[in-house]
Fold this sequence. Notes:
Layout: H1 2-5, E1 9-13, E2 22-27, E3 30-33, E4 44-47, E5 50-53, E6 62-67, E7 70-73, E8 82-87, E9 90-93, E10 102-107, E11 110-113, E12 124-128, H2 132-141
Amino acid sequence: MAEAAHAQWQVYRGNGHILTEQVLYKRDQRIFPGRSWSYADVLYTIVGNKITTGSMGSEFDLVFTCKNGKLYSGRGMYSSEIAYTFANGKIYKGDSTFPLDVLYNVKDGVIYTGDQAFTLDAMYVITGTYTDVDIFAILLSLELIS
């Protein structure tokens, strides 16, 4: 778990690893756009299993909490607050694992739309170590979920 807390990753457009195609990266639990190093540009901060807006990581900026592969709005105490589910490498809408509710899937660090995993259909590729919370933060940062 300590390794996951310090995990760093990069996200590239398509299925490549070209620096000019880098769209996000994580450093010090903060998610930066592109290749920016400015803390003013931080999109989200991950604090444990919580995702906050901006670079401070304050409870006042809390937008989502991840528990057991489910992304809850705010602090997330009730099943009605489940916005997304991550199970078996797939992102589902709401508290569901029904095949028709699949929005995205992540296979070997590559993000695809829906249930497909054809190489040419790769939307983004993630390099480095990531967790369930990171997957949700990546999708939020890319505005693939909200």
